[in-house]
Specification:
Blueprint: H1 7-10, E1 14-19, E2 31-36, H2 41-54, E3 59-60, E4 67-70, E5 77-78, E6 87-89, E7 92-96, H3 101-110, E8 113-114, H4 126-132, E9 135-136, E10 139-140, E11 145-151, E12 157-160, E13 167-168, E14 171-172, E15 179-186, E16 188-189, H5 192-209, E17 215-216, H6 229-235, E18 242-243, E19 246-248, E20 256-258, H7 264-282, E21 291-294
Parallel strand pairs: 2-5, 3-5, 4-21
Antiparallel strand pairs: 1-2, 6-7, 7-15, 8-16, 9-10, 11-12, 11-15, 13-14, 17-20, 18-19, 19-20
The structure holds uridine-diphosphate-2(N-acetylglucosaminyl) butyric acid.
Length: 300
Amino acid sequence: MPHPLPDDLLTLPHRRDVPFPKLTTLGVGGLCRWLFEPATEAEAQRFVQACAREALPYRVLGGGSNLVIFGDVEVPVLRLAFPKTLRQDGPRLSAPASYGHIRLSQDAGRLGLSGLEYAAGIPGSTGGALRMNAGAYGTELVEVLDTFRFLTPDGDLIEKRPDPGEFGYRSSFLTGGHVALAYTVRLAPGDAGVIQAKVAENMGRRGTSQPLSRRNAGCIFKNPAGLSAGRLIDQAGLKGLRIGDAEVSPDHANFLINHGHATPEDFDALMEAVREKVRMFHGVELEPEVEIWRSPGSEG
Ligand code: EPU
């Protein structure tokens, strides 16, 4: 990676050598060598344009809740530090990508707007939720998405409605240098008490079936079509399988937990062991649901 970084990039707010365990819920990984934290869309755009001009690869970090990092990351990392302001226009709510996803679900309940109850308990930022088309209980973000704003890898700012094929199961086209900036959801007016009760129920439901008191990155593997990754791993007898401080959760087998000092090597080895054993036991190939960053510069 070229050194030093271009001068115009260095005028943007940034920090050096930030430990990834402080930036991710799993608490694993090395150092983030360059963490850029723009406070406005214009600053984010300047970041992307400068990187595009220099053909400099970069990565985009959201809430760090769906991410497993193996090692140090030398390329610039972008984490939006936009003011967390929510706007309401009738049944529409607009949030910046830096807004908390759970908070948005709770705010919608408080405002008597239905459609985001499923999102209670899905951690991370709204930008990450958009990028992953987050979902739970058979509902996903794209179903309530009205418009969204993003930067292209060239730094062009676009606002549009979702088109068919742009969002799939835990996936979207907002990868490879795209940066989600904000979105508007269109919800249905309802009874605030009923909606808030559902939000609380969904949060509780997740809390009883998932090991949320331990550091984790959410579900590690995607559910293969028509199957449950958690059940497959459980049936292969892997609950409690432990390498170093990384363990297959005894509560929910699709969660790998960090007991405190797990290393990237522990996690790499545990994920591979789970995939191999599920392949042998069921003949099924598990694909990571989490984003994986391997240094240097490979796309996760
Ligand atoms: N199961 C087992 N053993 C386990 C875990 C689950 O037998 O160790 C069984 C359960 O009994 C159930 C089935 O597997 O019959 C499905 O389990 P669960 O209801 O927990 O749902 P899931 O498919 O494992 C999905 C999402 C979760 C989301 C829940 C609730 C994926 C990969 N996972 O989990 O999302 O919280 O539904 O809607 O789509 C995440 O995105 O990080 C995540 C965890």
